[in-house]
Amino acid sequence: MADNILKVGKENVINKVRKYLTLISPELNTKVSYFIIKKKKINLQEPETLDEKISWLKLNNYNENQLVIDCANKVSVRNYVESLDLTYILPKLYGIYSSVNEIDFNKLPNQFALKWNTGSGGNLICLDKEKDLGRNISRFKKWGDNWKRNKPYLIRAEMQYKYADLKIICEEYLGNEHTPLPDDYKFYCFNGEAKLVMICVDREKNKPRFYFFNRNWELQRINKDGISAPENFKLEKPAIIEEMFLCADKLSSPFPFVRTDLYNIDNRIVFGELTFTPSGGIDSNLPYEADLLLGSMLKL
Question: Does this model's pTM top 0.85?
Answer without folding.
Answer: yes
